[in-house]
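Data card: per-record layout.
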Amino acid sequence: MTLGGGYYWYPGARRAFDYDHYEFFASYESTLPDDVATLGAEIYYSPDFFADSGTGIYVTATADVPLPVVDGLSLVGHVGHQWVEENDRFGVPDYLDYSLGFAYSFEPFTVDVRFYDTNVSEKRCDNLCDARVAGSITWEW
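The structure for this 141-residue chain is written out next.
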């Protein structure tokens, strides 16, 4: 289990917008027997979320399934849900988000490419919540 916290600071933003906030998190990950998959769960909590929108809670479940065709290649994904106490101040309703894609690890790097989407309507989110493909490269030392 991992416990932690963070502070989000938006330098240059008007103080009246109240974007700066902090949150706490807990995560747990477990590998199934024979390394069939690694499953995880995370929860994030902010008592005073972005733009003074009240309590914010995000929970997610993750999966990483190694693919035997290439050493280091995995099918990866997540499904999560965000709840915000005062959605009108936050700007969007509570929502579901998910991703599915591939990760390739070759120490100390991991390349991750996924399809991401939410259940927030295009009308409600002004094209900011459209489905998309995104990738990342991480270096762990």
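Known properties of this structure: Residues 2-100 form one domain. The chain has a mean pLDDT of 92.

See the next section for split statistics.
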